[in-house]
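Subject: design request, 206 residues
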């Protein structure tokens, strides 16, 4: 059976905000509503610049969604398998708010806001980057407090940890540089995988 959302090319606007960041670290995308929540996770990772090296979880209301192989570290109740739920299944009329946590050690908390569900352009590859500001923090820098300590250290040559911190981050970090080109490349990879999967599904129906 054909996917009904694919047949109308339904998309929505996704805004991603990294909580407690100042200035605010954010991204805005267009995403297909037919993607799974696992694919939404992949999309957030690509848009923000994370490396997908840690556990993660979505929260919608009182319901939690996580990786398909969720095992230890999740508490008494494991999250719902995010590969089994599509974004359109959890959308509410008007606006949908989704909590997203990446890395349960550093605890990077994000607010996802999804609005303006509509018909997309079938000639455009989704998900698509629209806008954003501020670079993603370096992976494993210690959460938001560690991130601001990191920024202080690299900005001040007299800081006792300046040299070591620069060496740790590869010698350069620009908090204003969100590397739009890399974001677009990463999102395009997701779009290509999605289109390939759609092609396989259509071939099975022939």
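Subject: RE: design request

Done. Sequence follows.
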């Amino acid at each position: 059976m054909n996917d009904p959302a694919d047949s109308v090319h339904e998309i929505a606007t996704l805004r991603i905000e990294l909580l407690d960041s100042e200035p605010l670290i954010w991204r805005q995308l267009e995403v297909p509503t037919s993607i799974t929540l696992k694919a939404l996770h992949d999309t957030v990772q690509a848009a923000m610049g994370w490396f997908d090296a840690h556990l993660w979880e979505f929260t919608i209301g009182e319901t939690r969604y996580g990786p398909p192989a969720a095992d230890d570290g999740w508490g008494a109740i494991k999250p719902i398998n995010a590969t089994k739920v599509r974004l359109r299944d959890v959308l509410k009329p008007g606006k949908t708010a989704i909590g997203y946590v990446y890395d349960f050690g550093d605890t990077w908390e994000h607010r996802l806001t999804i609005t303006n569900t509509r018909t997309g352009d079938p000639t455009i590859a989704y998900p698509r980057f629209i806008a954003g500001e501020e670079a993603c923090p370096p992976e494993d820098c210690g959460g938001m407090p560690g991130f601001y300590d990191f920024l202080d250290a690299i900005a001040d040559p007299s800081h006792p940890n300046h040299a070591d911190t620069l060496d740790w981050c590869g010698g350069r970090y620009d908090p204003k540089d969100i590397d739009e080109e890399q974001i677009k490349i990463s999102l395009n990879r997701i779009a290509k995988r999605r289109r390939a999967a759609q092609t396989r599904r259509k071939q099975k129906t022939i």
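The longest strand covers residues 108-119.
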